[in-house]
């Protein structure tokens, strides 16, 4: 249960205002079916999440979770710096 709430909280906060929401907003603004958009987006997100879980299992056998956490932190900082200077 802890994993469920941790995943929910992290993903909910991370996804607020991201490109996926903007794409969904644009599709609905063009008059597309809300239910079609919802189920299409959920299917895509489920597939991407499944791939991430499988890849995470494989990577976990090769690299320690401590190193992965630090690498993810560095990656987010680098992306943030690029965004700050308008390069992404």
Helical segment count: 4
Task: Please compute the radius of gyration using only Cα atoms.
Answer: 16 Å
How would a textbook summarize the main sheet?
Answer: none
Counting helices, strands and paired strands, the structural category is: mainly alpha
In helices, the fraction of residues equals over 70%
Distance between the termini: 36 Å
Low-confidence stretches: none
Shape: globular
- Give the tally of structural domains: 1
Q: How would the blueprint of this fold be written?
A:
Elements: H1 2-15, H2 19-29, H3 34-62, H4 65-84
Summary, kept brief:
By secondary structure, the chain is an all-alpha fold.
Describe this entry's structure for a reader.
This protein is 84% helix and 0% strand. The protein is mainly α and 88 residues long. It has one domain (2-84). Helix 2 (19-29) runs antiparallel to helix 3. It starts with a helix and ends with a helix. The mean pLDDT is 90.
Descriptors:
mainly alpha; single chain; 88 residues
């Amino acid at each position: 249960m802890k994993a469920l709430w941790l995943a929910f909280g992290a993903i909910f906060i991370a996804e607020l205002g991201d490109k996926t929401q903007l794409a969904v907003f644009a599709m609905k603004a063009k008059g597309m079916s809300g239910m079609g958009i919802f189920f299409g987006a959920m299917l895509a997100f489920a597939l991407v999440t499944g791939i991430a879980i499988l890849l995470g299992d494989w990577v976990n056998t090769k690299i320690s979770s401590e190193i992965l956490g630090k690498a993810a932190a560095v990656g987010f900082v680098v992306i943030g710096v690029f965004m700050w200077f308008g390069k992404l």
